[in-house]
Amino acid sequence: MAFSLPLQAPWAAQGWKAKIRDKERTEPPRITILRGTRAWRFGLRSREFLDEIPEPKDVPEDLVDVVRHALPQLILEWDKMYPENPVSSAGGDDE
After folding, report:
1. Residue 6, preceding peptide bond in cis (omega within 30° of 0)
2. Backbone phi, psi, residue 41, to 5°
């Protein structure tokens, strides 16, 4: 089951979501920030956006700060969902 990071106002009211999606066990550990049909992948190991498109600058910096502040919780949730691919894994590929 996917994990959704609870977002407070104004983010949730503006349609922003932040989730660890299902079926990503072989992928680099990440949280996906969503708004409408757009999705940005933020690496839990690298602590930066994994893609250039859509442009990371389109995500408000205050929202990125919320995600960064929640990293300890997000790492725990990822590791529970995907124990075979933990965030602390030295062999992970984030690129």
Report:
1. no
2. -95, 125
> Environment class of residue 30 by beta-carbon count within 10 Å: exposed (0-12), middle (13-18) or buried (19+)?
buried
Bridge partners (DSSP) of residue 38 are 35
pLDDT in tens, 32-43: 999 999 999 999
Reported as a single tens digit per residue, the pLDDT across 76-88 is 999 999 999 999 8
Angle among Cα 31, 32, 36 to the nearest 5 degrees reads: 155
String of DSSP letters for 56-90: GGGS-HHHHHHHHHTHHHHHHHHHHH-TTS-TT-T
pLDDT for the residue numbered 80:
95
